[in-house]
Amino acid sequence: MNQINPKEYARPGWFGHRKLTPRACVADSKKHLRTFLSDALEDLGFITSECGEASELDGALDEHRPDLLVLGVSVNGIEVGRILEVLVRKNFAGKVLVIGPPESIMVKAVRQIGEEYGVAMLPPLATPFGAGTLRASVAMLLPQEPAPSPAVDVAEALKAGWLELWYQQKINLRTLVPAGAEALVRMRHPAWGVVPPAYFIPDEGDPHFHALSEFVVGRAIEDWHYLLEQKGPVDLSINLPVSFLSDPQAVRELCRRVPQHPAFGGLLLEIGSAEVIENLDLVIEVARQVRFHNIAISVDQVGTEWPSLMGLKSFPFVELKIDHQFVTGAADDRLKQTVCKHVVELAHDHGARALAQGVETRADFLTAHAVGFDLVQGYLFGKPMGVKKFARSRPSPAASAESKS
Question: What is the pTM of this model?
Answer without folding.
Answer: 0.71
